[in-house]
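Many introductory courses stop at the sequence. We go one step further.
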Amino acid sequence: MQSSPDIRLTLLKQWLQPLAPRHGFDPDSLAPASSDASFRRYFRLQAGERSLIVMDAPPPQEDCRPFVHVAGLLANAGVHVPAILEKDLDQGLLLLSDLGKYTYYQAIRQGLGDAALQVMYRQALQELVKAQQASTQGLPSYDRERLLQELTVFPEWYVRTHCGKTLDAQEEAMLAQCFATLVEDNLRQPNVLVLRDFHSPNLMLSADEKGDFVPGVIDFQDALAGPITYDIASLVMDARTTWEEPQQLDWAIRYWEAARAAGLPVAPDFGDFHRAYEWMGLQRNLRILGVFARLSHRDGKHGYLDHIPRVLAYTRQVATRYNAFQPLVKLLDRLEDRAVSTGYTF
């Protein structure tokens, strides 16, 4: 059976052709670079000793405008993001500088010594502090409605579709109360620019113009103005890479100290900050369980199921620590057909 033509790829090549002399790239060198959970995909071009990236974001499923807007906000704050060299927003095409071939996630999977790992992550924490000092002008608000709406994927796709379980009225009421508790706490936090997926797959091994190592930040088009602890929770409870609690705590303390030094509005007491980012992480991880289940069962992207045990472990790590979420732990036990869990609570 003959495969259907790639209309978007043909369009992309036609768009690139007249741009080649200006940027010195070889149009025939176009090769796939990566794709993600959305409709976006990326290609790499060779331009002499350097390379460039092409983003293909097909309308109406995708919109390049938020990417361009957020890239400007972050660049103005000194964050190392791709430079936008050419754009056709109506067709969903961008030509970008290349921040590197390897993500943190790829480097970690290939084997990385702890010394190098610590340097990489301490630099990432500095980039996060810069990003959180960026303007939030024109960004949507990570408000109550959005936070609650995002959590609906947990009962719909994780509980019912993935686990094949039905919630009774008491469990539904418990889950609604749990969600409300989390969201109200999230909303009490000061707002900054939230990158939303600040973790190992979206951090590049990169260098600045001087050749010094600076992590490249990508995949920020969904940025919002929201809770200050969201991105540190995303980093230390990485859905793709397991970090044990001592490592989570080390990076969280380093971030908190750097954020305070920069004048960011983190809680003055680390204990209060720690609880707030754990609860933010719990909200995020409940959503991720639903999203990963949906990506598998609806979209056929079954590789996301490999990460569910890790996300569940992060979810339990937090839920078992606090009395407010003990009913949630019991539900997780039932979903996994496990014996009743116990743990220290505060």
